[in-house]
Amino acid sequence: MQCWSAQAGYAPIPVAETRGCWIHTTDGRRIFDLRSAHECINLGFNHPHVLQAMREQMERVVYVTDDFATAPTAELVRRLARLAPGGPDKKVFLSQSGAAAVEAAIKAARMFQYNRVFGGTTRPEDLDAPRQYPFPYKIISRYRSWHGSTSGAASASGDPRRWFQEPFTVPGVVFAPDANPYRSFFGSGAEGLQAHLNYLEYLIEQEGGSNKVAAVLIEPVVGSNGIIPPPPGYLAGLRQICDDWNLLLIADETMTGLGRTGRMLAIDHEGIQPDIIVLGKALGAYCPVAATIFSERVSRSFDHNIFGHGQSFSGHALGCAAAVASLDVIEGEGFLERVQTDGEYLGSRLRALAQRHPCVGDVRGLGFFWTLELVKNRETREPLRRFTEKYTSTVVSRLSDFLLKERQVYVPSDKFGIWVVPPLVASRDELDFVVAAIDAALELADAELAPA
Ligand SMILES: Cc1ncc(COP(=O)(O)O)c(C=O)c1O
Question: Check: CATH 3.40.640.10 for 52-330?
Protein backbone atom coordinates (compact mmCIF):
# COMPACT_ATOMS: atom_id res chain seq x y z
CA MET A 1 0.00 0.00 0.00
CA GLN A 2 1.13 3.54 -0.65
CA CYS A 3 1.60 5.76 2.41
CA TRP A 4 -1.21 8.19 3.26
CA SER A 5 -3.13 7.55 0.03
CA ALA A 6 -6.31 6.05 -1.33
CA GLN A 7 -5.02 2.93 -3.03
CA ALA A 8 -7.08 2.71 -6.22
CA GLY A 9 -4.96 3.94 -9.09
CA TYR A 10 -1.66 3.56 -7.24
CA ALA A 11 0.87 3.26 -10.05
CA PRO A 12 4.47 3.67 -8.90
CA ILE A 13 6.98 4.51 -11.63
CA PRO A 14 9.27 1.53 -12.39
CA VAL A 15 12.89 2.39 -11.64
CA ALA A 16 15.93 0.95 -13.40
CA GLU A 17 18.64 2.63 -11.32
CA THR A 18 19.53 5.70 -9.29
CA ARG A 19 22.60 7.95 -9.60
CA GLY A 20 23.45 11.16 -7.70
CA CYS A 21 20.34 13.34 -7.70
CA TRP A 22 18.64 11.35 -10.45
CA ILE A 23 16.20 8.46 -10.75
CA HIS A 24 16.44 6.56 -14.06
CA THR A 25 13.18 4.88 -15.02
CA THR A 26 12.80 1.65 -16.96
CA ASP A 27 11.28 3.59 -19.86
CA GLY A 28 14.42 5.71 -20.25
CA ARG A 29 13.49 8.88 -18.35
CA ARG A 30 15.87 10.65 -16.00
CA ILE A 31 14.09 12.42 -13.11
CA PHE A 32 15.65 14.85 -10.61
CA ASP A 33 14.60 14.00 -7.05
CA LEU A 34 13.86 17.40 -5.55
CA ARG A 35 12.73 15.89 -2.28
CA SER A 36 15.85 13.78 -1.71
CA ALA A 37 13.78 10.60 -1.30
CA HIS A 38 11.74 11.96 1.60
CA GLU A 39 14.84 13.83 2.83
CA CYS A 40 16.66 10.52 3.34
CA ILE A 41 19.40 10.82 0.75
CA ASN A 42 21.36 13.92 1.73
CA LEU A 43 24.35 12.44 -0.13
CA GLY A 44 22.39 11.71 -3.29
CA PHE A 45 21.88 8.13 -4.46
CA ASN A 46 24.62 5.49 -4.52
CA HIS A 47 27.41 7.49 -2.89
CA PRO A 48 30.51 5.32 -3.54
CA HIS A 49 32.03 5.78 -0.06
CA VAL A 50 28.82 4.61 1.63
CA LEU A 51 28.28 1.69 -0.74
CA GLN A 52 31.87 0.52 -0.22
CA ALA A 53 31.49 0.66 3.59
CA MET A 54 28.26 -1.34 3.33
CA ARG A 55 29.86 -4.00 1.11
CA GLU A 56 32.76 -4.42 3.52
CA GLN A 57 30.53 -4.53 6.58
CA MET A 58 28.21 -7.11 5.02
CA GLU A 59 31.07 -9.56 4.78
CA ARG A 60 31.79 -9.22 8.51
CA VAL A 61 28.69 -8.68 10.67
CA VAL A 62 25.24 -7.62 9.49
CA TYR A 63 23.42 -7.74 12.82
CA VAL A 64 23.85 -9.04 16.37
CA THR A 65 21.76 -8.09 19.41
CA ASP A 66 22.80 -5.39 21.85
CA ASP A 67 24.27 -8.00 24.18
CA PHE A 68 27.19 -7.80 21.74
CA ALA A 69 29.17 -4.87 20.42
CA THR A 70 30.28 -4.20 16.86
CA ALA A 71 32.78 -1.67 15.60
CA PRO A 72 30.39 0.38 13.41
CA THR A 73 27.74 0.60 16.14
CA ALA A 74 30.30 1.77 18.69
CA GLU A 75 31.78 4.21 16.21
CA LEU A 76 28.38 5.64 15.27
CA VAL A 77 27.29 6.37 18.84
CA ARG A 78 30.70 7.86 19.63
CA ARG A 79 30.35 10.20 16.65
CA LEU A 80 26.75 11.10 17.48
CA ALA A 81 27.69 11.93 21.07
CA ARG A 82 30.41 14.19 19.71
CA LEU A 83 28.36 16.00 17.08
CA ALA A 84 25.48 16.73 19.46
CA PRO A 85 26.20 19.73 21.70
CA GLY A 86 27.09 19.27 25.36
CA GLY A 87 29.46 16.98 27.26
CA PRO A 88 30.64 13.67 25.81
CA ASP A 89 28.94 11.35 28.31
CA LYS A 90 25.73 10.91 26.38
CA LYS A 91 23.88 7.74 25.56
CA VAL A 92 22.21 6.83 22.30
CA PHE A 93 19.29 4.52 21.57
CA LEU A 94 19.33 3.26 17.99
CA SER A 95 16.18 2.34 16.09
CA GLN A 96 15.02 2.29 12.47
CA SER A 97 12.64 5.18 11.92
CA GLY A 98 12.06 8.74 13.00
CA ALA A 99 8.79 7.74 14.63
CA ALA A 100 10.45 5.01 16.68
CA ALA A 101 13.17 7.43 17.77
CA VAL A 102 10.53 9.99 18.80
CA GLU A 103 8.67 7.31 20.77
CA ALA A 104 11.90 6.59 22.64
CA ALA A 105 12.35 10.30 23.33
CA ILE A 106 8.82 10.79 24.68
CA LYS A 107 8.89 7.67 26.83
CA ALA A 108 12.35 8.49 28.18
CA ALA A 109 11.34 12.07 29.01
CA ARG A 110 8.44 10.75 31.07
CA MET A 111 10.57 8.07 32.73
CA PHE A 112 13.22 10.68 33.49
CA GLN A 113 10.62 12.83 35.26
CA TYR A 114 9.34 9.84 37.20
CA ASN A 115 12.87 9.01 38.32
CA ARG A 116 13.45 12.64 39.25
CA VAL A 117 10.35 12.82 41.42
CA PHE A 118 10.42 9.37 42.99
CA GLY A 119 14.17 9.06 43.20
CA GLY A 120 16.59 6.62 41.65
CA THR A 121 17.15 3.28 43.26
CA THR A 122 19.82 0.66 43.20
CA ARG A 123 17.74 -2.04 44.89
CA PRO A 124 16.67 -4.66 42.35
CA GLU A 125 13.33 -5.20 44.12
CA ASP A 126 12.48 -1.50 43.56
CA LEU A 127 12.89 -1.77 39.82
CA ASP A 128 9.42 -3.26 39.63
CA ALA A 129 7.87 -0.36 41.55
CA PRO A 130 4.69 0.88 39.89
CA ARG A 131 5.09 4.02 37.84
CA GLN A 132 2.05 5.99 38.78
CA TYR A 133 0.89 9.44 37.95
CA PRO A 134 1.10 12.14 39.14
CA PHE A 135 4.54 13.02 37.96
CA PRO A 136 5.34 15.39 35.11
CA TYR A 137 4.05 13.63 32.01
CA LYS A 138 2.68 16.21 29.60
CA ILE A 139 4.48 16.76 26.32
CA ILE A 140 4.11 20.18 24.77
CA SER A 141 4.23 19.98 20.99
CA ARG A 142 3.07 22.46 18.35
CA TYR A 143 0.24 22.51 15.86
CA ARG A 144 2.34 22.67 12.73
CA SER A 145 4.46 19.64 13.48
CA TRP A 146 4.97 16.05 12.39
CA HIS A 147 6.81 13.49 14.45
CA GLY A 148 5.81 10.19 12.80
CA SER A 149 2.92 7.86 12.23
CA THR A 150 3.10 5.44 15.19
CA SER A 151 0.47 6.03 17.86
CA GLY A 152 2.61 8.01 20.27
CA ALA A 153 4.46 10.06 17.67
CA ALA A 154 1.26 10.83 15.73
CA SER A 155 -0.48 11.82 18.96
CA ALA A 156 2.32 14.30 19.57
CA SER A 157 1.94 15.75 16.06
CA GLY A 158 -0.23 18.74 15.25
CA ASP A 159 -0.50 17.69 11.60
CA PRO A 160 -4.03 16.65 10.53
CA ARG A 161 -2.74 13.11 10.02
CA ARG A 162 -3.18 12.88 13.80
CA TRP A 163 -6.93 12.90 13.26
CA PHE A 164 -6.82 9.36 11.77
CA GLN A 165 -5.82 8.29 15.26
CA GLU A 166 -8.51 10.13 17.18
CA PRO A 167 -10.15 9.51 19.59
CA PHE A 168 -7.44 7.00 20.49
CA THR A 169 -4.55 9.42 20.66
CA VAL A 170 -2.05 8.84 23.42
CA PRO A 171 -3.03 11.18 26.26
CA GLY A 172 -0.84 13.87 27.75
CA VAL A 173 -0.02 16.07 24.75
CA VAL A 174 -0.74 19.80 24.70
CA PHE A 175 -0.28 21.91 21.58
CA ALA A 176 1.46 25.26 21.61
CA PRO A 177 1.31 27.84 18.81
CA ASP A 178 3.67 27.72 15.86
CA ALA A 179 6.72 29.92 15.54
CA ASN A 180 5.92 31.07 12.02
CA PRO A 181 7.11 34.59 11.15
CA TYR A 182 4.91 34.67 8.02
CA ARG A 183 1.73 33.91 9.98
CA SER A 184 2.45 35.02 13.51
CA PHE A 185 -0.32 35.66 16.01
CA PHE A 186 2.09 37.63 18.16
CA GLY A 187 3.43 40.28 15.80
CA SER A 188 6.89 40.58 14.32
CA GLY A 189 10.35 41.55 15.53
CA ALA A 190 11.65 41.44 19.09
CA GLU A 191 8.29 42.43 20.52
CA GLY A 192 6.45 39.67 18.67
CA LEU A 193 9.01 37.12 19.84
CA GLN A 194 8.70 38.23 23.45
CA ALA A 195 4.90 38.06 23.28
CA HIS A 196 5.17 34.53 21.87
CA LEU A 197 7.58 33.41 24.59
CA ASN A 198 5.38 35.00 27.26
CA TYR A 199 2.44 33.03 25.94
CA LEU A 200 4.46 29.80 26.06
CA GLU A 201 5.29 30.42 29.70
CA TYR A 202 1.65 31.13 30.42
CA LEU A 203 0.69 27.86 28.71
CA ILE A 204 3.25 25.86 30.70
CA GLU A 205 2.09 27.43 33.94
CA GLN A 206 -1.57 26.74 33.16
CA GLU A 207 -0.71 23.12 32.33
CA GLY A 208 0.83 22.63 35.75
CA GLY A 209 4.42 23.77 35.19
CA SER A 210 7.19 21.59 36.58
CA ASN A 211 4.71 19.34 38.36
CA LYS A 212 2.87 18.25 35.25
CA VAL A 213 4.91 19.00 32.15
CA ALA A 214 7.73 16.63 31.21
CA ALA A 215 9.09 18.09 28.01
CA VAL A 216 8.71 20.38 25.05
CA LEU A 217 9.03 18.62 21.68
CA ILE A 218 9.95 20.68 18.62
CA GLU A 219 11.27 20.44 15.12
CA PRO A 220 13.93 23.21 15.22
CA VAL A 221 12.89 24.05 11.66
CA VAL A 222 9.39 22.72 10.97
CA GLY A 223 9.52 20.22 8.10
CA SER A 224 6.44 18.47 6.71
CA ASN A 225 4.19 21.29 7.82
CA GLY A 226 5.74 23.85 5.54
CA ILE A 227 9.50 24.30 6.13
CA ILE A 228 9.32 27.06 8.72
CA PRO A 229 12.52 28.40 10.29
CA PRO A 230 11.61 30.05 13.61
CA PRO A 231 12.37 33.72 14.21
CA PRO A 232 15.89 34.37 15.56
CA GLY A 233 15.96 34.06 19.34
CA TYR A 234 13.01 31.67 19.55
CA LEU A 235 15.04 28.51 20.17
CA ALA A 236 17.26 30.22 22.76
CA GLY A 237 14.16 31.65 24.47
CA LEU A 238 12.52 28.24 24.52
CA ARG A 239 15.66 26.67 26.02
CA GLN A 240 15.59 29.30 28.77
CA ILE A 241 11.92 28.64 29.54
CA CYS A 242 12.57 24.88 29.73
CA ASP A 243 15.44 25.53 32.16
CA ASP A 244 13.31 27.85 34.27
CA TRP A 245 10.57 25.23 34.56
CA ASN A 246 12.85 22.19 34.72
CA LEU A 247 11.42 20.71 31.51
CA LEU A 248 13.33 18.65 29.00
CA LEU A 249 13.75 20.06 25.52
CA ILE A 250 13.49 17.45 22.76
CA ALA A 251 14.74 18.52 19.32
CA ASP A 252 13.36 16.29 16.58
CA GLU A 253 16.01 16.67 13.87
CA THR A 254 14.75 13.73 11.83
CA MET A 255 14.38 15.93 8.76
CA THR A 256 16.71 18.81 9.56
CA GLY A 257 19.75 16.90 10.85
CA LEU A 258 22.91 15.84 9.05
CA GLY A 259 23.62 19.01 7.10
CA ARG A 260 20.22 19.68 5.57
CA THR A 261 20.12 23.28 6.82
CA GLY A 262 23.82 23.97 6.20
CA ARG A 263 24.89 23.05 9.74
CA MET A 264 25.24 19.54 11.10
CA LEU A 265 22.10 20.10 13.19
CA ALA A 266 19.52 22.86 12.83
CA ILE A 267 19.89 23.73 16.54
CA ASP A 268 23.51 24.70 15.78
CA HIS A 269 22.21 27.86 14.11
CA GLU A 270 21.31 29.11 17.59
CA GLY A 271 23.82 27.12 19.60
CA ILE A 272 21.28 25.61 21.98
CA GLN A 273 21.67 22.30 23.81
CA PRO A 274 18.54 20.14 23.88
CA ASP A 275 18.26 17.36 26.45
CA ILE A 276 17.25 14.83 23.81
CA ILE A 277 17.96 14.92 20.07
CA VAL A 278 16.21 12.71 17.55
CA LEU A 279 17.85 11.81 14.23
CA GLY A 280 16.54 9.59 11.45
CA LYS A 281 16.03 9.69 7.68
CA ALA A 282 19.46 10.70 6.28
CA LEU A 283 21.32 9.27 9.28
CA GLY A 284 21.66 5.79 7.80
CA ALA A 285 22.22 7.06 4.25
CA TYR A 286 20.50 4.15 2.46
CA CYS A 287 19.61 2.10 5.54
CA PRO A 288 16.84 2.67 8.05
CA VAL A 289 18.76 3.96 11.07
CA ALA A 290 17.45 6.42 13.63
CA ALA A 291 18.91 7.63 16.91
CA THR A 292 17.66 9.15 20.14
CA ILE A 293 20.57 10.95 21.76
CA PHE A 294 20.27 11.56 25.49
CA SER A 295 22.29 14.23 27.27
CA GLU A 296 24.42 13.16 30.18
CA ARG A 297 21.80 14.38 32.65
CA VAL A 298 19.06 12.29 31.07
CA SER A 299 21.34 9.28 30.51
CA ARG A 300 22.33 9.19 34.18
CA SER A 301 18.69 8.81 35.14
CA PHE A 302 18.79 5.33 33.62
CA ASP A 303 21.96 4.13 35.28
CA HIS A 304 19.94 2.38 37.97
CA ASN A 305 16.43 2.67 36.58
CA ILE A 306 15.20 0.54 33.74
CA PHE A 307 15.09 2.16 30.31
CA GLY A 308 11.66 0.75 29.58
CA HIS A 309 11.96 0.64 25.82
CA GLY A 310 13.55 -1.45 23.07
CA GLN A 311 13.15 -3.12 19.73
CA SER A 312 14.60 -5.73 17.38
CA PHE A 313 17.42 -4.63 15.10
CA SER A 314 18.52 -1.85 17.49
CA GLY A 315 22.12 -1.00 16.63
CA HIS A 316 22.07 -2.84 13.30
CA ALA A 317 25.74 -3.13 12.28
CA LEU A 318 25.22 -2.77 8.52
CA GLY A 319 23.04 0.31 8.99
CA CYS A 320 25.53 1.80 11.45
CA ALA A 321 28.40 1.23 8.98
CA ALA A 322 26.42 3.14 6.33
CA ALA A 323 25.72 5.90 8.86
CA VAL A 324 29.38 6.22 9.84
CA ALA A 325 30.45 6.39 6.17
CA SER A 326 27.81 9.02 5.51
CA LEU A 327 29.09 11.07 8.48
CA ASP A 328 32.62 10.81 7.04
CA VAL A 329 31.36 12.63 3.96
CA ILE A 330 29.21 15.23 5.73
CA GLU A 331 31.94 16.00 8.26
CA GLY A 332 34.53 16.09 5.46
CA GLU A 333 36.37 19.26 4.61
CA GLY A 334 34.24 21.94 2.99
CA PHE A 335 31.06 19.85 2.72
CA LEU A 336 28.85 21.91 5.04
CA GLU A 337 30.42 25.17 3.92
CA ARG A 338 29.37 24.36 0.36
CA VAL A 339 25.82 23.61 1.47
CA GLN A 340 25.77 27.02 3.15
CA THR A 341 27.10 28.99 0.18
CA ASP A 342 25.13 27.09 -2.43
CA GLY A 343 22.11 27.24 -0.13
CA GLU A 344 22.34 31.02 -0.07
CA TYR A 345 22.66 31.01 -3.84
CA LEU A 346 19.59 28.79 -4.12
CA GLY A 347 17.66 31.05 -1.73
CA SER A 348 18.52 34.15 -3.76
CA ARG A 349 17.40 32.46 -7.00
CA LEU A 350 14.11 31.48 -5.36
CA ARG A 351 13.54 34.98 -3.99
CA ALA A 352 14.06 36.33 -7.49
CA LEU A 353 11.33 33.96 -8.70
CA ALA A 354 8.97 35.37 -6.08
CA GLN A 355 9.47 38.86 -7.50
CA ARG A 356 8.15 37.68 -10.85
CA HIS A 357 5.34 35.40 -9.72
CA PRO A 358 2.46 36.91 -7.75
CA CYS A 359 1.28 33.44 -6.65
CA VAL A 360 4.28 33.22 -4.29
CA GLY A 361 3.47 34.54 -0.83
CA ASP A 362 6.64 33.63 1.03
CA VAL A 363 10.06 32.18 0.27
CA ARG A 364 11.76 30.70 3.31
CA GLY A 365 14.39 28.21 4.29
CA LEU A 366 18.09 27.76 4.81
CA GLY A 367 20.80 25.48 3.49
CA PHE A 368 19.21 23.05 1.02
CA PHE A 369 15.84 23.24 2.77
CA TRP A 370 13.49 25.73 1.08
CA THR A 371 9.87 26.24 0.22
CA LEU A 372 7.84 28.64 -1.85
CA GLU A 373 4.53 29.12 -0.08
CA LEU A 374 1.82 29.82 -2.63
CA VAL A 375 -1.18 31.95 -1.68
CA LYS A 376 -4.50 32.88 -3.19
CA ASN A 377 -3.82 36.52 -2.47
CA ARG A 378 -0.42 37.99 -1.76
CA GLU A 379 -1.77 41.06 0.06
CA THR A 380 -4.04 39.21 2.46
CA ARG A 381 -1.78 36.08 2.56
CA GLU A 382 -4.89 33.94 2.06
CA PRO A 383 -3.60 30.34 2.09
CA LEU A 384 -4.27 27.85 -0.71
CA ARG A 385 -6.21 25.67 1.68
CA ARG A 386 -7.16 25.49 5.30
CA PHE A 387 -5.67 22.99 7.71
CA THR A 388 -8.92 21.06 7.55
CA GLU A 389 -8.51 20.57 3.78
CA LYS A 390 -5.32 18.54 3.75
CA TYR A 391 -6.53 16.14 1.10
CA THR A 392 -8.22 18.73 -1.08
CA SER A 393 -6.41 19.09 -4.37
CA THR A 394 -4.98 22.53 -5.12
CA VAL A 395 -2.87 24.12 -7.80
CA VAL A 396 0.18 22.54 -6.12
CA SER A 397 -0.91 19.09 -7.33
CA ARG A 398 -1.07 20.46 -10.88
CA LEU A 399 2.39 22.00 -10.48
CA SER A 400 3.94 18.79 -9.22
CA ASP A 401 2.32 16.88 -12.14
CA PHE A 402 3.72 19.44 -14.58
CA LEU A 403 7.17 19.30 -13.02
CA LEU A 404 7.27 15.52 -13.17
CA LYS A 405 5.82 15.04 -16.65
CA GLU A 406 7.14 18.09 -18.51
CA ARG A 407 10.34 18.98 -16.64
CA GLN A 408 11.55 15.66 -15.15
CA VAL A 409 11.54 17.03 -11.60
CA TYR A 410 9.98 15.00 -8.79
CA VAL A 411 8.50 17.03 -5.97
CA PRO A 412 5.49 15.52 -4.22
CA SER A 413 2.67 17.97 -3.73
CA ASP A 414 2.48 19.59 -0.35
CA LYS A 415 -0.37 21.52 1.15
CA PHE A 416 1.31 24.90 1.26
CA GLY A 417 3.54 25.22 -1.76
CA ILE A 418 6.57 23.85 -3.58
CA TRP A 419 9.40 22.18 -1.72
CA VAL A 420 12.97 22.75 -2.83
CA VAL A 421 14.90 20.09 -0.95
CA PRO A 422 17.61 18.77 -3.29
CA PRO A 423 20.29 16.28 -2.28
CA LEU A 424 23.17 18.15 -0.63
CA VAL A 425 25.47 17.07 -3.46
CA ALA A 426 23.45 18.88 -6.17
CA SER A 427 25.72 21.07 -8.31
CA ARG A 428 25.03 24.69 -9.24
CA ASP A 429 24.04 23.52 -12.72
CA GLU A 430 21.54 21.16 -11.19
CA LEU A 431 20.19 23.89 -8.91
CA ASP A 432 19.80 26.16 -11.95
CA PHE A 433 17.98 23.38 -13.78
CA VAL A 434 15.57 23.04 -10.84
CA VAL A 435 14.96 26.79 -10.55
CA ALA A 436 14.22 27.05 -14.29
CA ALA A 437 11.71 24.20 -14.00
CA ILE A 438 9.98 25.86 -11.03
CA ASP A 439 9.92 29.16 -12.89
CA ALA A 440 7.93 27.52 -15.68
CA ALA A 441 5.62 25.78 -13.22
CA LEU A 442 4.83 29.01 -11.39
CA GLU A 443 3.46 30.47 -14.65
CA LEU A 444 0.68 27.92 -14.36
CA ALA A 445 -0.04 28.87 -10.77
CA ASP A 446 -0.05 32.59 -11.61
CA ALA A 447 -2.60 31.95 -14.33
CA GLU A 448 -4.79 29.74 -12.14
CA LEU A 449 -4.70 32.00 -9.10
CA ALA A 450 -4.94 35.37 -10.88
CA PRO A 451 -8.03 37.33 -9.83
CA ALA A 452 -10.76 36.79 -12.44
C1 LIG B 1 10.48 15.79 12.01
C2 LIG B 1 10.08 14.36 11.77
N3 LIG B 1 10.06 13.49 12.79
C4 LIG B 1 9.72 12.21 12.62
C5 LIG B 1 9.35 11.73 11.38
C6 LIG B 1 8.98 10.30 11.22
O7 LIG B 1 10.01 9.63 10.57
P8 LIG B 1 9.74 8.16 9.96
O9 LIG B 1 8.88 8.37 8.76
O10 LIG B 1 11.12 7.67 9.63
O11 LIG B 1 9.08 7.37 11.02
C12 LIG B 1 9.33 12.60 10.29
C13 LIG B 1 8.91 12.11 8.96
O14 LIG B 1 8.61 12.85 8.08
C15 LIG B 1 9.72 13.94 10.49
O16 LIG B 1 9.74 14.82 9.47
Answer: yes
